[in-house]
Amino acid sequence: FHPVYLSTLSYQELLTKIAGLFQSDGEKISQVLLCGPAGIPVCISDEMVSQLDCESRFSLHVVPDEVIAGRFKIFMKPNANLRSERAR
């Protein structure tokens, strides 16, 4: 568990903080996506980041970018286990 706190609620800040978790620069990450309903990948924008619940919890999954060699995509999957604990 690694909390990430955003002060500017922007995609760029989210990307920078996630890259820091992986001890990498942002250049290695080609895209950060949110896994939406039915696992559909959703592109993250500044507006979407600003709408995230302040106590949102996600698991991060790293996948090689099939288009750009040497880069990775990060998928943010809502963490259902943590949500169920919160509901108790």
TrEMBL record:
One of its GO terms (cellular component) is nucleus. InterPro entries: GRHL1/CP2_C, TF_CP2-like. Residues 1-65 form the GRHL1/CP2 C-terminal domain. GO terms for molecular function: DNA-binding transcription activator activity, RNA polymerase II-specific; RNA polymerase II cis-regulatory region sequence-specific DNA binding. This is NAD_binding_6 domain-containing protein. The lineage of its organism: Eukaryota, Metazoa, Spiralia, Lophotrochozoa, Platyhelminthes.
